[in-house]
What does this fold into?
Amino acid sequence: MGAKMTDEEADAFVRQVKFLIAGIVLLFALPLLIYTFYLDHRIDAFEETLRHSPLEELQTDHEVRTDIYHLSANPVEGQVVYVPAYSHIYHGDGKPYLLTITLSVRNTSTSSDIVVRSVRYFDTKGKEVKSYLHNPVRLPALATTEVVVERDDAAGGSGANFLVEWHANEAVTEPIIEAVMIGSDSEQGISFARRGSVISEAKPSPAATEELQP
It folds into this structure.
């Protein structure tokens, strides 16, 4: 029968076990701490490269051109614009996902009004669903007008579209016309936009074109 371990020997054995466990923990923890520090340093360095850099203004002794004459970019007097829209899209096994549509018409001219003559909404089969304007709408310079198709109005379908007709009394820059779709269901959400395409255009008259020349 083996000799009984004394209290001193038991304490020494326990200390050795603790030292062994501490050594094992340190063996695994130290590389992890070093890697964590390295990773934090890399992230900080990466975020530093993304910091906002303010614009650097030119000094007063730099020459800046003052003889520039601005011409309208692709000036037109009117257009009919086709804008694709989606009252719903499909997901999963073909289940419809309802969307709210916002049609936005933005006058990009800094000095001239435009007139939105009509906004017509069509469904997937090309049938007119609704005309949103009873009378033309005048849109001042840099102003925006909007039309909203509510989420529960699915009459347009996945192939809905708008036809927007506008005109101006002089050649102006093209307005930006786009449809923005957004939907949310439980914790899911989706949003996207589609820009309109010109399908017919009113060119400026020769006299207006000559007036645009410097």
